[in-house]
Design brief:
Elements (H helix, E strand, L loop, with lengths): L5 E5 L6 H11 L10 E6 L4 H8 L4 E5 L16 H7 L3 E4 L2 H6 L4 H13 L3 E6 L3 H5 L3 H13 L4 H6 L1 E4 L13 H19 L1 H6 L1 E5 L7 H5 L6 E4 L6 H9 L3
Parallel strand pairs: 1-2, 1-8, 2-3, 3-4, 4-5, 5-6, 6-7, 7-8
The chain binds glyceraldehyde-3-phosphate.
The site of glyceraldehyde-3-phosphate (G3H) has 14 residues, from strand 8.
């Protein structure tokens, strides 16, 4: 089955409202209109409403970078998935290594978030990835299998088939030291095999798997040429309109 490539920018904690709006205005009408690629921008929650309104009716889709797993209640500082859906947000990034490390998110939290996102008609971009220590110990495959197994438990076949999984080796994030395209393909293959083991071949052939970690316009084609890589989750190189558009243009 042909999987549609998906390029998602993750702005992390960058930009002001003015800069976010300027980005959307510069990008939204310049997305390649052949629909060969899904184009997503992951913004801080503060700018989501503005971005959804600006991107309305265009090819640009908007993602949150996190949400809580309850829809409402006494959870000071958290973001409701129901409110995100109400705004018109399409995707939510969950389980990013920065959230796992700095905010102590567990596989169980991330699993609850995945369920809440589906319950609110949005699509999770589920991140997994290993530390340099795990990589150097040759334990990447078992680490990834465990993150996938625990993170997706209880989801339906249909849900897993429709989601996006981003493999991001932590040692390649923001370091300029991207993983070799063959390594990215191998580990994205581990993700796909794990999904196959848990949910069957049809689901594993449908789920879209991104590579993330120092992806830029100059190297994205190498990743996209690989069998198991269906797209990229991009931090630094997604911040400027020209660079974001160049990433999209590079997807053949
Ligand atoms: O979510 C995106 C990743 O953490 C990659 O960030 P980067 O492209 O700046 O290395």
């Amino acid at each position: 089955m042909a999987r549609k490539p998906i390029i998602a920018g993750n702005w992390k904690m960058n930009k002001t409202a003015k800069e976010a709006k300027e980005f959307a205005e510069a990008v939204k009408n310049n997305i390649p209109s052949n629909s060969k690629v899904d184009s997503v921008v992951g913004s801080p929650a503060l700018f989501l409403q503005e971005l959804v309104e600006s991107a309305n009716g265009t090819e640009l889709k908007i993602s949150a970078q996190n949400c809580y797993f309850e829809n409402a209640g006494a959870f000071t500082g958290e973001t409701s998935p129901a409110a995100l859906n109400d705004l018109g947000v399409d995707y939510v990034i969950i389980g990013h290594s920065e959230r796992r490390e700095y905010f102590h998110e567990t596989d169980e939290d991330i699993n609850k978030k995945a369920k809440a996102i589906f319950a609110n008609n949005m699509t999770p971009i589920f991140c997994c990835g290993e530390t340099l220590e795990t990589y150097e110990a040759g334990k990447t495959a078992e680490w990834i299998e465990s993150q996938i197994t625990n993170g997706l438990v209880g989801l339906s076949n249909e849900q897993v088939a429709s989601m996006v999984i981003a493999y991001e080796p932590i040692w390649a994030i923001g370091t300029g030291k991207s993983a070799d395209a063959n390594i990215a393909d191998d580990i994205c293959g581990v993700v796909r095999k794990t999904v196959e083991k848990l949910y069957g071949k049809e689901v594993s052939e449908s789920v879209r798997i991104q590579y993330g970690g120092s992806v830029k316009p100059e190297n994205i084609a190498e990743y996209m040429a690989k069998e198991n890589v269906d797209g990229a989750l991009v931090g630094g190189a997604s911040l400027q309109p020209d660079s974001f558009l160049a990433l999209l243009e590079a997807v053949k």
